[in-house]
Structures are given as structure tokens and as C-alpha cells.
């Protein structure tokens, strides 16, 4: 629930652009890393103060400033001033409950989206918000905490592997997007395995616990949808070829991420249909079991009620009860009871109840 | 129900533009507050008579006239004449059952929308209708009753905090919109907590009462949707950049409200899915409980019916009933009964019914 | 059912434009009223023969011809010739099973729609078809029977109240549309009250009868939707500002009717969701009741089956049955029974079944 | 099932345009009828050989060639050559499992659609495929078997009734379309009556049979939808006014057929909702009945179990059983039993179970 | 499950365009076949090394290179270099979990789609990915393993049957698409038969097994949808006439494949509705059976409980029990019991329970 809707009410009444951190504080200290690279050189360093990054190097270099920790108002404000970012965006960066979106401010593009991880322990999806600012020759990324999501991208820049080092800031932004979307596949995979486990359980040993799991899965799928669905529009807008900050050679890559996003959304929808299907199966199997239980009851009652009645009849204390006098009365009655019981069993067998 | 559809039939047969107050009268006396401000000065006063406000001060000043109480036909008519508002709009202002909408009349823009509050006592959402008229250098707002929704905006104008004082009437209209939309977040949050409570109850102690709560929540969500959904279109239209009354610098703010609205609508849809999911869980748990109850019944019947039958057999009054004569007959029968009973219990345990 | 789909098969095989009255004949005799008015004068008269109306007065006057009764082929054909109406439209006018639509034939606009009334007795909605032909300076309206739906419009023209008398034929057409749409609000209100009644009944005394009412409401909502939904498109098309017969000053009024229609459609959708919700509640309460009933059964069986068994044991006729000989055997058994019974009751209380 | 998806696999691996008849052979011998008419003359004849029709008469005459029977490859190939039709269309004509569609090949327009009939015996809808080729001055129609669907059109041409004789090939194509769409109304009507019957049955004597009927109706509605839905797009495309083969005077007629199609689709959707509603009612009534049955069981058990227990107590063979010695013991016990039984009945009455 | 979402996580962290085979390795050794043909000549050969194919023959010849086996990175990289294909596409070719798509890179068009086969044994659908690259005068196709899907196309080229040999690479690409889509019809047909079997089973002998089959069918339909749905867009894009590589004469053929795809999607939706319908029927029949079982129980209990009670009454050991003394007491009681039993039976018959 908490992840589906965060506490934003403390913002009520504040002027637009007022900076307030919404969400959990996931990091003790803000950590800023700057990376400057061109086709030939590459410099990475951790910097204690954001002021050191600015002014940016010349146009030949691409600068990537990665900020881990977004709870410090002072810090964010400072960046805003140095990089000339609109106050509303600063507000969005600090609000971790933001819907994925993209906005184009001629000088820079602002993108906000989520990284997701599947928590194996409680089978829930954890989300972290990532904001990206893509300028002419720089990218500024904001993370809630240090994570490994961008590690491969850093590696590729440092090793000079692939084409990333030779290409500009727009390709870097794409590479970050791609890394995040790749992370979704991992979540989907684990989710898929979890769904498979539940399906298995559903067929072998369905219980109230299974129902709770299905309910949980449905909620996680809702959360997934809410986190990823808007991304489709975001990337589609970027892909339309009308943003001057994105070079034409980068479009083919954006289209690739777009395809991945569509694929992911398709899979989420499939998961959703599967979860609904599982609920139907669960309900059906509960009904089936009830049938089984009631059948047992009916069989027992149908066999023993008449027999008990007969026993009751011959247990009556009438003075004149002719059969009771007979020599073989007892055995005759036992035999009659045996026949009645057997007939019942045969009847139920014919009806396929046993 | 009342809130889902108000009594409009008294308007039937009246000419268009005929003024009739539809809704509850929430205030004894109309209260009018006027606020005139520019970047440097600010004057707020309560005025007894609407005529005092007009003619408006010169173009340097922004005038905000806030009218609390819309049940007085005379008053509304007067404002209509002074501010030159189309009679159909006056009709809309007095009809508190209006769907949120925006209309552009070159000279002014008319916006009608709802403020919502979550009533903790009966867990229902109360709505109040707000109408805004945005002119070149003035905003007229109509509220059903005095509320605190605009207090922070008033505060910011008086304190000169933020950029509101320096900007024109369009920014003021935005600030009012933003205050209202911010109020929705508070409602959503309380709604979310309520849903969380019900989910908790659903897992621990589901009862007919829980069902009633789920039903209630679903109805409130319907009401929320009906009240907020049209707002999306309203703000989207304003955001398209074709309204001459809205300066280009204000668009980025409108886009921000638009994002919030989309976010809210997303959350409402998520709530809806969750409510549906809760109903499914409820039904499943009712079925499960039925199964449990019937299992108990079946176990009891299956154990005691055969035993009672045996007791019945040896209660028959046959003259010749050999076992009855035996010395250990009674104990043999008791033992047989014990064995049968134990077998049943073992069988049910194996079937996982106990 | 009848109202959801009328018998049209008698038209099969006829050429297009062949005039056949489809629907119930609701009136014995056709009644034609003509009204000619300008800003200053107004003449209303009932005319026996449609020929008297034509040729129309000069352009200064607006003529409204209201025809009650559409079952007379001869009459309709005559009007068609006099007013130069396309035969296909005449066919549509006589076919009361027509879907609301608007068609623009440069010289005139043809509109067909439904008036609805809520029948309090059988809680059903009755529909009547209204066709309007709007020409340069005339409106011809066709009703199935005399009704009071247009009475307020007639009144306003005669009294010269409002702006209707000063404005042209397009405003008259709008006024008629508005009167019809206003009528929908009355139906919705009564429908809403009916739904409220059912909800009340659902919580207090749900029965098979309640189910039937819910089913009935759902059907009426289907009928409402089918009758009103297409109107949205009709008015939207008129509102687009491309019809030469509609003056620009009339658009603001059409937009108002459009808003009302959207509001009505919203409410119908809300009703639909509520009806679905009620069905869910009904089903849940049936399940709940079953649970209650089965609980009673299980409690009774679980208490008395063991007790009866014990009584049965001591009712056996064994020669040697030691307890039977005891002085206090009877009371000991009674006490044991009491303890078992009490234990059961305590157990069920703990399980919250009692 | 068969009608929802026909056996097309025999086409797999064949080149496009390979002629294979898919569907049932409904006619022994192909029958070709040719009709040539202008405003003044009309000639109808049955011709044994398709070659006789070509070359077509001059432009003054409209020629309609109606071919009943599409299973003869040779025949279809021949027509294809003579009328210069694309091989893919010939393939489509012979494949009776085709989706309704329209294709514009400058020289001619190709339309394929379905005629439907409601089979009263097994309450199923039978479909027949009709293909139309509309050229400058000719129409070629292909039917699976001889039917009466075009009889009224033929009659109107022969009688010279209506405007059909005076108008060209495009009007003829419209007239055929109109005849087919009129046939749908007949199917809908019978379907509606059938639904009404089931609703009646549902309220009076619901049974497993009723469920099967509902299932059947749902399937037929699926089939209806699949057959008619694409027609909407077909006629809409024709109606857009961009086909040179269709004269502008014919558009008003096409728009009329379009309205009918929309109306039919609306009704199908309504039927669908009604079928779903009926299923809900069925399920509810099954649940209700279960409740009734279980109530009876519970009442019986609750009354007789305690009584039987009491009887059992006094049936115990204890030596010392004081009540048994009493003079009025038996009557006292009988009375006690009577009181307990009556109390139970009163209790159930209060609970409204009886 | 596996087929609904494949293991892609091993790609996480790799740069875009990094080649990794995702999916099962279905073939031991890559097999490459090259086919060069013009209207007059045709040469087919299996080639051990991809380098032999390049450079391509002159423009007069159409070259089709068919590669079976996509798990060899080296091989795919080689082809990429020789045919100048974008690295991202090579990545897509090797990733068998790709969503069907089409991309236009001026020099060539890239298409990826699925061939499907219905596995009769476990009633599941197996998918194989096919990638096509269509250049000016060549087509390169990639298959996961050798299959018979393209055999008819090869045959037609070799025999010179049909128009394929005379037309260019675009027609060849169409022919391959058509062959794949034709394969879908076979799958649908078998699926349809399977659904029919389940429906049959549902009516005659519904069991938990039937439920599992329905669940399975629903999952297969989900898989079908996911595999085929995007194809609609793919072919639609190709059909729009804006691709320079596709000659205008080929469009009519593409439109034909498009029609088939729509038809297939329609059928999938119908299957989906049918599967949902079957689940409803299943649930209803389970409920019905429960009713039947409970009825039996109630009848038995209602008949024998009162009778057993009566027997119990006369089994009481009261000293003074007048009826027990009567000469005909026993028979009178038996008769009374008979009457009560018969009355019950008659009552149940009247209630239509028996």
C-alpha cells in the first residue's frame, strides 16, 4: 500500500517549487560522482562539493554527474542554481512518488522514472526513483541511494568498450535508460517464477495461504503497471524525432528501448490475466472441494440414517412386536440392513460419487 | 447516492440561464472578500456589497474577488452584470451538481471544479463546488461555504513569499487550481489508509461488516472518479497554449498540475482495482469458511452416525440376540466402536480435514 | 425487451424510403399546431390540414410546426412534399426504433432523438421518439403523441419571456433539445431514488425479489444507455461550428446542452457500476447467509450427535452392562452429557460461530 | 464451433490466388442469372454459360450478373478472366470463411459480407457468404446457394417500382447491401424473442437446461458479432466519398445503411450484456435454491436432533432411572418435546427461515 | 510459463548490440541454404560458409539466403558484417523472446515474427522465431531450426509455378510471411477442435480435470495473442505504401495477409470469449451438482429424522407408556411412519426435488 501511494500531504499549502523530500531517506550522506569523457580520455572522480563540477568542461567532453541521495534540500537547490534547472523540476526530483514522465525545456530534457527490484523475502517489488537531466553535453542523474544499476554503464565508459565513449550525452542518457529497462526484465523473470510456483501450489495443495499469495501477486502487478506503463509514452515522445538535443543516430537505440518497454508491458498484461485466471481456478477448486466434502456427508447420512431407523423400530418397547419373537428375526434384520447398505453404495458408485 | 446525483429536476421547464440554486445551502450569509495586489502592494478587505469591487482597479493591479456562498440569486445576478458574465455561466455557478469543465469566452475563462474532503466519521467524501472566472487582470472565485482551501494562497500573497505576488491573474488562477488539486492528495491518502485498514480486517476478521465497508469504498471511488476524471481534460485544454489569457510562462506550472491530476487518476484506478481484489478475497474467504464449517459437520456425522447405528442394533429388542448374552459383548462392542471412531479420525487426518 | 428491440421485420424487402410506421400507435388522430413568431408578434393555432402551413411566411418570422402522431403515412408524405424532405428521412421519422442521429442536408438539419419518462408503477423507462427538422426559418417537430415536454418552450414563446422570441429557428431547435435533455435529468433522479431503495433493501432484507429488481434496473440502464449515448455524438457534431444553419451566438447554448449530455452519460455509467456492485453484494450476502445456516446445522449436529450416541450406548440390551447397574449411573451419564454439551458450546463460542 | 472457424488448413502451402472452395457445398449446380436494365428497358434471363454475358452491353445499360454456387473452380476462373478480376479476389470469393471486407481496385470495388438466417429448430444462426463486384456499369454477385434475399430487389427492378431502375450500378450495389442488412434485423428480432423466452424460463423454472440455452445464446451472439462487426468499417469506408465508382447521390443511401449497421451493432452489444446478466441471475438463483434446501435440512435437524436425543435418554437401560418410574413421566416428556419443537419452529419463523 | 516469458536476465549489463543467444538451442549445426533465381533460372545450394554468398549476384537475380540455427554468435556476426546489418538487429535475431516487429532501415527492412505449431500431446503451442531481412534484391531469413514451413515456397520457386519466380525480393518476403500466417490457421483449427472437445466434456462429464484443461486453453490463448497480436501492426505498417523497397504491385498481396491476420486475431478473441464462457459453465455446473447432492441429503434427513424420532419415543423405558400396551400399537406406529414418509416424498416431488 505504502508503495502504491506515498504520503504527499505535507506538501499541501506550500508554494509550487517548494522543495520537500517525499519518501524514505535511504542514504546517510549524499554522494556525488562526476565523470568526464571524450572519445579519447575519461576522468572519474568522487567530489565532495557540487560546485566543483561547474562550469562544465568544453563541448568536446561529455560530463555525467551522478548524485546518490536526494533528501538534502540545500544540495538540490545548489544544483538547480548551477545547472539552471526550473524549480518545479527540483521539486519533482525530491518527490519520490512521481509518475514517470519526460519534459522538454529546450535547453535540457527532464526524465523521471523508476528502477525496480524484486525482494525475494517478502515477494514484493521495491522501487527507487531515478531522475535524469540531459543537456547539450552533460547528463545529471539523481538516485535515491547508491545502487548497482549504472555499474555496467560506468564500466563500458571506463573500458572504452562499445560505442558509448565516442558518442555524446544523448547516447549516455539512452544507455542509462536501457540499463534501467534491462532491470525490469530481471524483475519480470522473478515475478514469472513466483507466479509459476503459485500455479504449482494451486494444483497440488491450494489453501487460504495460496489465496493470499495470489492477492499479493495481483497487488505487485498493479504496482508494476503503475510504475512502468507511463514509460511507454515517455520513450515514445523521445522517439518522435522532434527533440533537438537527441541526435538522429540515437533514434534507432531509443526505438530499441521502446520495443523493450512494449514487450514488458505486454508481459505485465499477460501476468495480470494469469493472476485473474489463478483466482478463478482457486475459487473453482474451493467449490470442488466443498462438493467432495458434502458428498461424503451425504453418503454417510444416506447409508446410516435408514439403518439407524430400522434399528430404532426394533428397539421400540411394544408389548406385541411380532418380529422380535422370531427365532431368526435378528439375523433377518441384519441381513436386510446389509442389503440396504450395499444397495446404497452401489447406487452412489453408479452416480460416480464414490 | 445524494452526492452521486443531485436533485436537478426543479430546473426542468425553466429557460436556459434561469438562476436556481441546486444543492444544500451551506452558509447563512454571503461573504465577499476582495484582494488587490501588485508586485509591491497588497490590499485585502471584506466587503459587504459586491458593487464596491467594480470598476476594477487599473491594469497594474491583480484583483481577486472571493465569494463564499452561492445561494443568493440576487447577488450572483449582480456579479454577472458587473463583470459581464454570460447568464449560462451564472446558472452553472449556482448549480453545485456541475461536472468539472472549462470554457473559454475570449474575455474570460470559466472553470468549474470540486474540492474534496474525506469525512473520517462516516468514511465518505464530501464535495464542494468551486467556480473560477479568470479575466485579464482579475480572478473571481465562488465557494459554497468558507473553507481553508485557499488559506495558503492568501498567505503567500500577503507575505509576498514565492513568485505569486509578482505574477498576474493567470498565475493566481493556477495557484488556486494547484491548491485544490493538492487537496485531492490528502483525500487519496486517507482513502488509502482506509483501504489498508479494510485489507487488514479482511485477513484477520472478515465479516458482513467488512463487505459493507468494501461496498462503501467502491462507491466513494466511483464518486472520486466522477469528480476528478473530467479535470484531466480541463487542464489539458488549458495547457495546449491556445488561450490568450494565459501567459506562456504559466504553462510550465499548468503542466505540473496536469501531471498531478494524471497521477491522481492513476491512483484512483489502482484503488478501484484494489477494491475489486478485496471483494474477490472476501468471497473466497466466505467460501473457505463454508468449507471449514461443512468439514466439521461431515467429520462429526461420519464418526457418530455409524457408532449410533451400532448402538441402535444392540438396542433392538429381539428375543434372540446372541451377542447380548455374551459376557464381554458390551466391552467388545465398545472396543469395536473405539476402533471405528479412531479409524475415521485417522482417515480425516490423512485427508487433511483435521 | 420490446423496448430494446422493436419489430422492424415488416420493412424487409421494401424499397428504401418506403413509409411504414414502426412502433405502437399512441394517438388516435394526428394533431398539428403551427406557431409563427418574430421578436414582436406571435401567432399560435391548431390547424386541421398541413397544407395551410405552406408556403411559409417571410423570413422575418420563425415558424414552428409541431406534429403529434406519426402513424399516418399520407400525412407524413404530404409534409415531405411540402417541405421538400428526402424520402429516407420520412422513413426514419415513422420508424420509432431509430437510433438518435443528426444529418445535415445543406437546406435543413434532421435530428432524431428520444424523450424518456420513468414509469413509477413498473419501474420501467418509456421512450418516445422525437424528430426535428431545422430549416432556415422554420422547425418541424414530430412527436408520437401529445406530451407536455414542449409546454415550457411554448409558454416562453407566448410570454415573450427569455430570449427565445427574439432569436431564430436555430435557437428554437436548441430550446427543444434542451427541454428533452432536461427531461432526462428527471428520469435519472427517479432512477437514482429507485437504486437507493434497492440498496436499502439489499442491506436490510435481501431476497430473490431484490435480485429481480437489480436485474430490472440493469436492463433499464442498458435501455437508457442505448437511448442517450448516441446523443453525445449528435450534439458534438452540431457544436463543431460547421453547420451554416446554426448561428454562432447559438453555439454557447449547444455547448451547454452538450455538457448536460456528458453529465447524464457519466451518471448512467455510475449507475451501471452501482448496479454491478449491488449484484456483488447480493451474491455475497447469499453466501453469508448460507454460511450462517450451515453453522446452525453444524452446531446442532455437533452437540447432539455425540450425546445421542452416548444415550444409544446405554440403551443397548446387553445382559452384562456394568454402568447400568450402578446406583448413580444415570446421573453420572447425564452429567457427562452436560459437560460434553457445554464444552461444545464453549468451543463454538471461541470459534465465534455463536 | 464449426461456424466460428472453418477448415482452412487445406490451403496451407498453396500459392496465393490458388482457387480452393472452403466451406460446405450447398448447391448441386451453378446457376447464373443475368439482368440488363436501363431506365426504360429490363431483360432478365438465366444463362447456362458465363461467356454469354460478356462483353457487357453499352454504358447505357446496367448489368447485374448473379451467380449462385461458388464451388466450381472452373466457373470462377472463367468469370475472373472475363471480368478481369484479381486472382486473390477469386480466392476470397471461394473461401466462405472470409471476414467481411471491402477493397477498392480503381476499376471495380470488391465487397464480401454475410447473410444470416436464424434457424428456429436448433436456435442457431446460419451464415452464407455473399461477394459483390461493383464495376462502372455492372454488378456481379456471388451466392453460396439460391436464396430469397435478393428477391425484393429483383422485383423492384422488374416492376420499375422505386428509383432503382433509373439509377446506376452503384445504387444496385447499395440495394443489395440494404437487402442483406435488412435480413439482419429479422435475425436480431428472432434472437431477441429467444432471449425473452430464456428470461421467462429463468424466472419461472431455471434448470441446467436454461444454463445450456444461455451458453448457446452467448455463442450465437459471438458469431453475430464476428459476422457483422467488420461491416461497420466496410460501409464507413464506402461512405467517405472517395470512391469514384460511387455517385454522390448514392451517399445518402449508404449513410442510411451505415446507420442501420450501427443500430444492429448496438443491439448486439445490448444482447451481449443481457446474456451476461442472465448468467448472473442464473448463478444467483442456484445459490438461492441451495440456501433454501440447506435451510430445510437445518430446520429438520434442529428440531428432531434434540428430540431424538431426549428419547434416547429415556431409552437408556439404567436400573435406577427415576423419571421412568413416574406415573406421568411419559406425558411430561412428550410435553417437553412438544414445547422444544414449537420453540424451534417459532425461532425459525422469527428468523424468517420458514 | 516458460514460453510466456523467457530468461533474458543474462543480457542485463551488456552493451546494446551485444550478441547473446536467448532461448533453447534447437539445432546442433547451423545450416545455410542459398537460392538464386530470376524469371528464367534458379539455383539452390547448401553452402558451408556464409562468405560464399557475398557479394550478391547482380540485380537481375533475387537471392534468398535461409539460415537455420541462430545460436552461433560468430556466424551471425559474420552475416551482419557482410550484409551490413545494424548490430541491434543482430541482437534481436539471436533473442528468440522478441516481440513481432518491423523496422525500416532505408537499405533494408527487418521483420521478426513467430511460427507456431500446436503440440497434440500436451495441447500446448510451440513457437519458433523467424527473422527476415528484405533488401533490394535479396531476402535473408533466420530460423531457429530446420522446419517445413518454407517448403511450399521453395517448391514454387523451383517448379516455376505461380508468379513467385518472376517477381522480386519483396514478393518473396511476402510469400514467406504468407506461409507463416497460413501456419497460424492450422494452429487455430487444432485449438478450435480442442476447445470443442472440452465443451463436449463440460456437458457430459465435467471434472477437476476439465477445469485444468480450460485453464490450460486460456493460457495457450494468452500465448497466441501475445505472439500474433503485434503482427497486425507490422503488416499494417508495411501495407501503408511508404516503403520504397516494396513495389506497388505487391501491396495487394500484403493487404491479403493483413486480412488474414485480422481474421486470426478475431478468432483468437472469439476463442477467448469461449474459454471464459466455458469457465462460467463449469462453475455453474459445480454449483448445480452441489445442489443435487445437498438435495439428496436433505431428503434423506427429512424423511428419516422424524421417523427415527418416533421410533425413539416408543423405545423409551417408561413404566407407564400406554401405547406400548396396545395390541395394534406396533402396527399403528408403523402405519403412521409410512404415512409420514410418503407425505414427505410427495412433498419433495411437488417441490420438484425428486
From TrEMBL, chains A, B, C, D, E:
It is a multi-pass membrane protein. SUPFAM superfamilies: CorA soluble domain-like, Magnesium transport protein CorA, transmembrane region. One of its GO terms (molecular function) is cobalt ion transmembrane transporter activity. Its main location: membrane. GO terms for cellular component: plasma membrane. It is found in: Cell membrane; Membrane. The chain crosses the membrane at residues 293-316, 328-348. InterPro entries: CorA_cytoplasmic_dom (IPR045861), CorA_TM1_TM2 (IPR045863), Mg/Co-transport_prot_CorA (IPR004488), MgTranspt_CorA/ZnTranspt_ZntB (IPR002523). It holds the Pfam family CorA. Keywords: Cell membrane, Ion transport, Magnesium, Membrane, Transmembrane, Transmembrane helix, Transport. The keyword Magnesium applies. Gene3D superfamilies: CorA soluble domain-like, Magnesium transport protein CorA, transmembrane region. The keyword Chloroplast does not apply. PANTHER family: CORA FAMILY METAL ION TRANSPORTER (EUROFUNG). Mediates influx of magnesium ions. Belongs to the CorA metal ion transporter (MIT) (TC 1.A.35) family. This is Magnesium transport protein CorA. It comes from Kuenenia stuttgartiensis. The lineage of its organism: Bacteria, Pseudomonadati, Planctomycetota, Candidatus Brocadiia, Candidatus Brocadiales.
Amino acid at each position: 500500500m505504502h508503495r502504491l501511494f506515498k504520503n504527499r500531504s505535507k506538501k499541501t499549502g506550500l508554494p509550487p517549487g517548494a522543495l520537500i523530500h517525499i519518501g524514505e531517506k535511504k542514504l546517510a550522506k549524499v554522494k556525488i560522482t562526476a565523470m568526464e569523457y571524450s572519445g579519447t580520455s575519461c576522468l572519474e572522480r568522487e567530489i565532495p562539493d557540487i560546485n566543483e563540477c561547474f562550469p562544465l568542461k568544453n563541448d568536446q567532453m561529455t560530463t555525467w554527474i551522478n548524485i546518490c541521495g536526494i533528501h538534502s534540500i540545500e544540495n538540490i537547490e545548489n544544483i538547480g542554481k548551477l545547472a539552471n534547472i526550473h524549480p518545479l523540476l527540483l521539486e519533482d526530483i525530491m518527490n519520490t512518488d512521481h509518475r514517470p514522465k519526460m519534459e522538454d525545456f529546450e535547453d535540457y530534457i527532464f526524465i523521471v522514472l523508476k528502477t525496480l527490484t524484486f525482494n525475494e523475502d517478502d515477494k514484493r517489488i521495491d522501487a527507487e526513483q531515478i531522475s535524469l537531466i540531459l543537456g547539450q553535453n552533460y547528463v545529471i542523474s539523481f538516485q535515491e541511494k547508491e545502487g548497482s544499476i549504472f555499474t555496467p554503464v560506468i564500466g563500458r565508459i571506463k573500458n572504452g568498450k562499445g560505442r558509448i565513449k565516442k558518442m555524446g550525452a544523448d547516447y549516455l542518457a539512452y544507455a542509462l535508460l536501457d540499463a534501467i529497462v534491462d532491470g525490469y526484465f530481471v524483475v519480470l523473470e522473478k515475478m514469472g517464477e513466483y507466479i509459476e510456483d503459485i500455479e504449482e501450489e494451486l494444483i497440488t495443495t491450494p489453501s487460504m495461504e495460496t489465496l493470499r499469495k495470489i492477492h499479493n501477486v495481483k497487488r505487485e502487478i498493479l504496482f508494476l503497471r503503475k510504475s512502468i506503463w507511463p514509460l511507454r509514452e515517455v520513450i515514445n515522445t523521445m522517439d518522435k524525432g522532434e527533440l533537438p538535443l537527441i541526435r538522429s543516430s540515437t533514434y534507432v537505440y531509443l526505438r530499441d528501448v521502446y520495443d523493450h518497454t512494449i514487450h514488458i508491458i505486454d508481459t505485465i498484461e499477460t501476468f495480470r490475466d494469469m493472476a485473474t485466471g489463478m483466482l478463478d481456478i482457486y475459487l473453482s477448486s474451493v467449490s470442488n472441494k466443498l462438493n467432495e466434502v458434502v458428498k461424503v456427508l451425504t453418503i454417510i447420512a444416506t447409508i446410516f440414517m435408514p439403518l439407524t431407523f430400522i434399528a430404532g423400530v426394533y428397539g421400540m418397547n411394544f408389548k406385541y412386536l411380532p418380529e422380535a419373537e422370531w427365532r431368526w428375526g435378528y439375523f433377518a434384520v441384519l441381513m436386510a440392513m446389509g442389503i440396504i447398505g450395499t444397495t446404497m453404495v452401489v447406487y452412489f458408485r453408479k452416480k460416480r460419487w464414490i
